[in-house]
Amino acid sequence: MVAAVRTVLGDIPAGELGVCDAHDHLFLRSPVLPGQELDDPAAAAGRLRAFAGFGGRSVVQWTPYGMGRRADVLAELSRSTGTHVVAATGLHQAVHYPAALLGRIRDGLASLFVSELTDGIGATSVRAGLIKVAGAFHTVDAHARLTMTAAAEAHHRTGAPIAVHLELGTAAPDVLDLLCGALGVPPHRVILGHLGRSPDGAAQREVARTGAFLAFDGPSRAHHATDWRLPEELAALAGAGFGGQLLLGGDTTVPETPGMPHLLQRLRPRLTEVLGAGTVTDMLVTNPARAFAFEAPAQAA
Q1: Residues 95-123: pLDDT tens digits?
Q2: Which residues carry this modification: N6-carboxylysine (predicted)?
Q3: pTM above 0.90, yes or no
């Protein structure tokens, strides 16, 4: 059976993903970012075309349920720009949602995630291709436990990968203890985001040894102080034998973020100089094809 990635236009062989921005946002809306919404389809199309102009082929949008992911326009954006787009289901930290909304959906999260992965998001036929959840700063709080438990159930029912926002790059061991230990998700089906925001090499190697994928998703307007460390962090991890688990993303969260074109235009040459073309190709092409592919669901085995 050929491994497949679920895009907004349908499933494609994982090998067709091509050069991939493994963590980004075409659309995003949150009460913690007032006035900085990403909600302009024309601007999103411009970013996709610029990314494609530098050889980009695929973008994975980590915007989850209730944060303005614009499933209604994702398919047309993918068609018109010739770029594969992967959409997300899941839930971010509680601070990004009205309490009343969380109260309405909390008891049916796993079913919601499964429906968006298998049937479509809202009234659209666009199916999500991954489940996005989030930890808290240096801990897994009650909300994260709720969402990660639902994400694990949805993973077991569908085979979808799980992507995790690590708050300032922290709590990765606690996240893996819950998802992979208590909840039985294989580590290679987990993608840990924002590890570069806590540039602790020992901690990065600790979680790499589990087999999880590690997403280094900058440069970021808010966290640029850690971006200059990226080449040495990646070189250390690749040198320690973890090159097959590394992913790169632009993580466009507000309009001023350098984002996806910068990832290929500026960051790729810098990383190629330090790491070599083969390692960078692995991070942009080979590794995403494995990280975002669906596997046979455990409940079907």
Answers
A1: 999 999 999 999 999 999 999 999 999 99
A2: 132
A3: yes
The residue type at 95 = V
Residues counted in the chain: 301
158-to-119, 134, 185, 300 alpha-carbon distances in Å? 12, 20, 12, 9
Cis peptide before 288, with omega less than 30 degrees from 0? no
In a domain, 215, yes or no: yes
Q: What is the pLDDT of residues 197-212, one digit of tens each?
A: 888 999 999 999 999 9
Where do the DSSP E strands lie in the chain? 4-7, 10-13, 20-24, 58-61, 84-86, 88-90, 130-134, 162-165, 190-193, 213-216, 246-248
Residue 250 structural domain? 19-300
Phi, psi angle pair for 24, to nearest 5°: -155, 180
Report if residue 72 sits inside a domain. yes
Residue 8, in any domain of the structure: no
Tokens of 6: 């679920």
State the residue for tokens 């999260």: 109
Q: Is 15 helix (H, G, I), strand (E, B) or coil?
A: helix
Q: What are 11-26's pLDDT values in tens digits?
A: 999 999 999 999 999 9
